[in-house]
Amino acid sequence: MSNKFGVHGHDNVSMTGIAFPVSDRRNIYPAVAAILAMLVAAAAGYLMLPRADVSLPLVEGCRLDRQTCSAALPGGGRIEMAIEPRPVPSSGPMRVVVAVEGRQPVGVEVSFQGVDMNMGLHRLPLAAAGGRFVGETTLPVCVTGRMVWQATVMLETGRANVTVPFRFESGL
């Protein structure tokens, strides 16, 4: 007796109409195992790909010691950064706030470097807080009192690390 696909026998017919003798069904297990192994290898290879580093140019015409500054992100979205208090003191704590629109960063960090004087590299990881990322730090004291700083925000977003540099002056 044949089914609607014209295949004889009803016990060994799959939904596609292809008949597998009962003794040959176990031959499919090595093929399935090989396909699963290839999928696992492909996923592991994707995860091991290097992250893309995207460095944006210095945000011109905006100083963090005077106002909140923002920049457009490649591929859409915006970043906004603020430092408090204003003016920024040459010593003492300051609060850093970063807001990101159009992206969901995995991590946000800010590095501070002196522009005209080597003050070392100071990194501040920011904590997620109500849709923003915040942190508090104290910059190294400059003997001249006034200092121009570059604050570079580093966004870790999926497969890319995006850096956005801003400038400000402390000790006014």
Which properties best describe this structure?
single chain, 172 residues, elongated, mainly beta, Immunoglobulin-like, 2 domains, nine-stranded mixed sheet
Structural notes for this entry:
The protein has 172 residues and is mostly beta strands. It contains one helix and nine strands; from the N terminus they run H-E-E-E-E-E-E-E-E-E. The chain has a nine-stranded mixed β-sheet, with no helix packed on it. Strand 2 (69-72) and strand 3 (78-84) form a beta hairpin.
Fourth CATH level, the homologous superfamily of the largest domain:
Immunoglobulins
- Examine the coordinates and then state which fold CATH places here, giving the name of the CATH topology of the largest domain: Immunoglobulin-like
The whole-number mean of residue pLDDT values reads: 83
Helical fraction: 10-25%
Give the CA-CA distance, first to last residue: 95 Å
Largest sheet: 9 strands, mixed
**Uncertain regions spanning at least 5 consecutive residues:** none
**What gyration radius follows from the Cα positions, in whole Å?**
29 Å
What's the shape?
Answer: elongated
Number of individual domains = 2
